[in-house]
Amino acid sequence: MKYKLLLFLLVNLLLVNKVEANSLGSLGESFVTKNVLFNRAVSDSVRKNRKSSRILSSKAQLAPPTTVAGSSCGDGVNFVQVNLYANSSNIGEIEEWFISQTAPTPVFTGNVYSPSIRTTRTYYVQSRQGSDVSTRVPVVASVYKAPSLVTIDVSPSNSPSELLCLGTPVTFSAVGGAELFEFSVDGVVAQTMSSNKTYTTNTLSNGQTVTVRTRRSLVLDGDINEDAWGTAPLEDNFLAAPLSNNAKEGYINSVKISAAESKLAIGIAGKLNANKSILLFLDSKNGGFNTANFGDVSDISEVNAFNYFNNNPSAFDSYFQADYCLVISADATATNFYANIIELKSGESIKTSLGTASSGFPSTSFAVNNNNIGITDYNLGFEVEMLKSMIGYTTGDLKFFGLTIQANDESNYSVTNSFLSPELSSAAEYGNSSIDYNLKEPNPVIVASSALIPCYSNGNVTVSFYESPIAASVVQPTCQDTFGIISIASQSGSEYSLDGTNYQVSNTFSGLAPNDYTLYVRSISDNTCVTLSPSVITINAVPLPPVVPAASSTIQPKIGRASCRE
Question: What average pLDDT does the segment 64-81 reach?
Fold first, then answer.
């Protein structure tokens, strides 16, 4: 009887877990967000089982699909469509999209997934063939807030019927938009992006177009909350396992990026105590390292964790080839923090400093707020700005793989369990041995190339000026009409002259004697606004009449003898 009762309880427990797992797969976006904390306790065993099955079935695993992430500009309120792409390696495999690394049921099957979303979220796609599956690849569908509509006020005002005099200083003022503004003339930047909302020039001519584009700005202060960072993190630690001991002193909660024209800012929410570092590996161009067997840096100050990580080379996921590593480290008292970008090389990797900062005291390119209150704080942490060229970026999606590491010295260092994307199951340290991350839960995250271009709002206006006068038509003298005629191309609100003194409303001048004439156009309302032609119009001399023809010789007819009558 005891065994029957135990069997009954076991069957019921399995049925309950199955119902809960199936329910989780059918939940919508908002329900999952609100209730996943409750389900964490229920799904702990699911995560552990997933990890075990992943390792045991590694020989049967498929290659992960190749992916393209997506990004759209929105307002954070209305839904926008974001397109995500995935292609499996082999015929017969399908692509399955999930809302999390642990969701049991896909939300979509196919190689093009186009969710309509309000805010940034990460989806996870895997290849499947029968019971074999690949790693789930985190692919970000990002949404950035577009600036409000921008228009241009022009002073003095002008229009095709209200022309300005050439050389008149004109001020263009942006109305609306965001915090930063750039002005261009006929597509050529005339005033670079800045907080200056006005642009003044006196070099414009008729028909030129002045355009303003505006985008959002950010302040490097370690508080990653401006609209320029997007509507939500690109990836976060939601569903992560409890932190290991070292991770409690150095953890990473989320990553955001903010793009400018030539620069890229990376915001990392988290905290670093003494001798802790964040390593954010970046796959930003073709080539790179799939294994951490790149060269050390010779000057290990501020980046010793990077060299230690490379002591026992680990393998990244197969779809990730690291090109650069952003290293953020704390000193022995967690007072000063250092940011360095390292270009990975086979011989000696190259370190470039991005600055030193402390909480409340940023440098030009690096800011820290080390008052992050815990694993659910997605705002406070570290902000770094760099040229896109510093990470070799030109085009294509950007991939990142982030972790924290305790690095006292070469005999005392350890990779924690704080990763992005997160470790889901184990609270144990990853330690200092070689790791095959293909068999682990943290995966590199894919960010769209379009997320590396700011969301802009644009406005433009075409200016109207008096133009240098040109002849619309010229009639030269003839023998019958010995005077010429010049018609000047008409301009609104103008009067015309051929000598700069005598003006008339009519643009046609007749009865002109042979001469060279300069054309003048003047504003009727402002007689100081005079524009003249750059070259003269010539009325030719009256042509000479042709000479009266005269015979040079005359041959009279003759009467022949045969026709002569006697």
Answer: 96
Q: Helix (H, G, I), strand (E, B), or coil: what is residue 522?
A: strand
Q: Is the Cα dihedral 473, 474, 480, 483 positive or negative? A: positive
Angle between helices 29-56 and 2-26 (to 10 degrees): 120
Residue among 189, 187, 180, 190 at smallest CA distance from 228: 180
Q: How many CB atoms lie within 10 A of CB 453?
A: 15
How far apart CA 513 and CA 523 sit, in angstroms, is 27
- Residue 20: pLDDT over 50: no
The answer, yes or no, to whether residue 9 has pLDDT greater than 60, is no
Buried b (16+ CB within 10 A) or exposed e, 296-316: bbeeeebbbbbbbbbeeebbb
Token reading at 4: 């029957």
Percent of the chain at pLDDT > 70 equals 88
Q: Kindly report the CA angle at 522 between 516 and 523, in degrees rounded to 5?
A: 165
| Phi and psi torsions of 208, nearest 5° | -75, 150
Chain-centroid distance, C-alpha 184: 19
pLDDT of residue 549: 74
Q: For the chain, what is the radius of gyration of the CA atoms?
A: 38
pLDDT greater than 90 at residue 12:
no
Categorise residue 92: left if φ over 0, alpha if ψ from -120 to 50, beta otherwise.
Answer: left
Whole-number mean pLDDT of the chain?
Answer: 89
> pTM (2 decimals)?
0.82
For residues 465 and 165, what is the distance between their CA atoms, to the nearest angstrom?
Answer: 6
What are residue 539's DSSP bridge partners?
515
Predicted local distance difference test score (pLDDT) of residue 360: 93
Alpha helices (H) along 130-233: none
**What is the rounded CA–CA span in Å between residue 441 and residue 421?**
8
382 touches 328 (CB < 8 A): yes
Q: Give the span between the Cα atoms of 254 and 269, in whole angstroms.
A: 5
pLDDT of residue 559: 64
Residue 535, pLDDT score: 96
Which amino acid is present at 396?
Answer: G
Rounded distance, CA 326 to CA 282, Å?
8
Q: Which pairing describes strands 250-259 and 235-236: parallel, antiparallel, or unpaired?
A: antiparallel
Report the C-alpha gap between 254 and 380 in whole angstroms.
Answer: 10
Closest CA to 65 of 111, 121, 114: 111
Residue 1 scores a pLDDT above 50: no
Tokens of 400: 């990142």
Report the 10 Å Cβ neighbour count for 486.
Answer: 20
544 pLDDT band, cuts 50/70/90, is confident
Q: Which residues contact 533 (CB under 8 A, 6 or more apart)?
A: 468, 469, 470, 471, 518, 519, 520
156 cis-preceded (ω within 30 degrees of 0): yes
| pLDDT reported for residue 111 | 97
Residues pairing with 151 in the sheet: 175
CA angle 331, 332, 334 (to 5 degrees): 60
Length of the chain: 566
